[in-house]
Amino acid sequence: MAAFRRPGNRVDDRAAEVQVRGDMLPLLVLPFPAIDPVAVSIGPLAIRWYALAYIVGLLGGWFYARRLARRTEYWTGIRQPSETDIDDLIMWVALGVVLGGRFGYVLFYNFDAYLSRPSEIFAVWRGGMSFHGGFLGSILAIVLFSRSRRLHPLAMLDLAAVVTPIGLFFGRVANFINGELWGRPAPDFPYAFVFPDAGPLPRHPSQLYEAFTEGLVLFVIMAIAVRRFGFRRPGLLGGIFVLGYAVARILCEFFREPDPQLGFLFGASIDALGGGITMGMLLSIPMALVGALFIWLASRGMTRPRAGEAAEPSSA
Asked: Distance between CA atoms of 144 and 147, rounded to whole angstroms?
C-alpha cells in the first residue's frame, strides 16, 4: 500500500546506487517461479499460501507436541501435560501468534503509518506480521495457559520451542512464494532471483535462507536437544531455541532487504555490516541475551520446580 511507504528512503537510495552496475548483471539469473499466491480457491473462498503456512505450522506443531507429551521419560520430575492440554493449548497459541504478530508489526515496523490510519491495524488480510511480536504473544498465551492448568510455564515454553521451527519453515517458504521480504541486491550471485515487485535487480532469496536456518537447521538442533535433555531442566530448551533463532536471524539479515519504511537504522554506511543495522537485528539482540541467560539458569538447576510442585500428570 503506497500510503504505508515513504519514498526516498535509504533502501531506495542504496538500490539506486547498485543500479549503476546494471550492465554487469549476470546472463543467467534464476526466473522467479510463477506461483499463484492463492493456494486453494473454492468459489468465493480463497486460502493464500501464507494462511496455509500458518495452518500447517500450527497443525504440525500440535501433532509433534502431542507425541512429545506422551514421552513420560522426558518429564521426570516435571508435571506432565495430557494430550487434552495440548489440544487446548494450540488454540491459545494460535491466538497469541496472530494478535502478537500483528500488533508487533504495527509497533515495531510501521507505527506512524498505522497511527494515522488506525482502522488499518485490523486489516490483517493485507499483510504485515512480525515474528518477534508473535513470539511475545505466544509466550504470554503459554504462560497464562500453564498457570490455569497448574503446569510448569518454562517446561511448556520448552515444548513450544521444540515444535516452533516447523511453523518458521513453512512461513518463510510462503514468504518466498508471495514474493515478499526479498533479499538485498546481488548482481554477481548466480542463484539470485528477480522478484516481481522488487525492481529489475537480481536479489538474494533470503526467505529461503531463513527457511533453512530458522526452520530446518533449528528443527534438527531442537530435536537433538529434546532427546538429550527432555524437559527436566525447565527453560533450557527454550533458551537454546531463542539463542539459536536470534543468531540465525541476525545472520540472515545480512542478506535481507530492510523494510522500506524503516531502511537501515543508525545510518547506512557501516561497511562491516554490509550496509547498516536492521530492525530484525536490533530485536534479535535481546533475544540472544535472554536465551543465553536461561541456558545458564537451567544448567545450574535454578529453574527446577520446588519439592511437591511436580511429578503427577495434569488431569485436565
From this structure: 5
* Cell (9 digits) for 195: 522478484
Query: Residue 3: is it exposed, middle or buried by C-beta count within 10 angstroms (0-12/13-18/19+)?
Result: exposed
The band of 218, judged by pLDDT with boundaries at 50, 70 and 90, is very high
Per-residue pLDDT tens over the stretch 233-264: 999 999 999 999 999 999 999 999 988 777 78
More confident residue, 20 or 111: 111
State how beta strands 275-277 and 265-270 pair: antiparallel
Could you tell me the pTM of the whole model? Answer: 0.81
